[in-house]
Automatic annotation (TrEMBL):
Keywords: Amino-acid biosynthesis, Aromatic amino acid biosynthesis, Decarboxylase, Lyase, Tryptophan biosynthesis. One of its GO terms (molecular function) is phosphoribosylanthranilate isomerase activity. InterPro entries: Aldolase_TIM, Indole-3-glycerol_P_synth, Indole-3-glycerol_P_synth_dom, RibuloseP-bd_barrel. It comes from the Bacteria. Pathway: Amino-acid biosynthesis; L-tryptophan biosynthesis; L-tryptophan from chorismate: step 4/5. This is Indole-3-glycerol phosphate synthase.
Length: 260
């Protein structure tokens, strides 16, 4: 069983329990459900921002504990001031130590588009994402069939949310891309070995149709990585650990983005 199989199996149980606690009607009644989403595509491609999607991540299966003390609202405020184009908030508790409350806290202080970073395996999670003020969602091709990807992307679109489709290889890209997606993310982390290589983004770049914003995810740790990825048409850069492993992720983001 791979780590992704474990996460997905756990997620299905978790979502079933969440549904018992709060119905879809309850989610639709939350005040943030009616908030107009901010366009991640516009912010990521804006010449006035950095293209960086800065992530709040306390822990991960590959690294264990990364940061047990940072306060999400401080980090969210700092990422915005640093020039981040978007923020990624892990809401998975079991494997990443995140919660939906983290996203709510980030939302309360930051105007940048926020992605609910989770393992979406049920419509409920997309409606929940809208109800906590997220602007875009992640669909991970390795967790879904192509039909599920399209179905969930259509639902998200109908709610006004944009969609970042994450792929790891050519096969996933070919099978899952559809006209409901907005951004295509190539994850540089091999989820079987946890090795990271930006060569994965470079290899897949020319296969991503031009109408999608290209995002490179994971293992980005310096400005040279970004300069290199830009040559291949990448406009979005998802960075988590490089900021979160420091005592002050907001300061790390400010120092990093100053160099761009
Ligand atoms: O990070 C992991 O260990 C991991 C394991 C299994 C599934 C997903 C995982 N990571 C999620 C991510 O996509 C990263 O948090 C994100 O791309 C940022 O990566 P990094 O800058 O390397 O922290």
């Amino acid at each position: 069983m791979t780590i992704l199989d474990k996460i997905v199996a756990h997620k299905k149980i978790e979502v079933a329990a969440r549904k018992e606690l709060l119905s879809v009607q309850d989610l639709e009644g939350r005040p943030l459900f009616d908030k107009e989403p901010v366009s991640a595509k516009s912010w990521i491609t804006s010449p006035n921002r950095s293209g960086i999607i800065a992530e709040f991540k306390r822990q991960s299966p590959s690294k264990g504990l990364i940061n047990g003390t940072a306060k999400v609202s401080d980090v969210a405020e700092g990422y915005y001031k640093a020039g981040a184009s978007a923020m990624s908030v892990l809401t998975d508790q079991e494997f990443f130590g995140g919660t939906v409350d983290d996203l709510l806290a980030a939302r309360s202080v930051s105007p940048v588009p926020i992605i609910r970073k989770d393992f979406i395996v049920d419509e409920y999670q997309i409606i929940e994402a809208k109800s906590i003020g997220a602007d875009f969602i992640l669909l991970i091709a390795s967790c879904l069939t192509p039909e599920e990807s399209k179905h969930y992307a259509t639902l998200a679109r109908n709610l006004g949310l944009q969609i970042l489709l994450e792929v790891h290889d050519e096969q996933e890209l070919e099978a899952h891309v559809c006209d409901k997606m907005d951004l295509i993310g190539v994850n540089n982390r091999n989820l079987k070995t946890f090795e990271v290589s930006i060569e994965t983004s470079i290899r897949l770049a020319e296969l991503i149709p031009n109408e999608y914003v290209k995002v490179s995810e994971s293992g980005i740790s310096n400005i040279e990585n970004i300069k290199e990825l830009k040559k291949y048409g990448y406009q979005g850069f998802l960075i988590g650990e490089n900021f979160m492993k420091t005592e002050d992720p907001a300061k790390a983001a400010i120092d990093f983005m100053k160099q761009l």
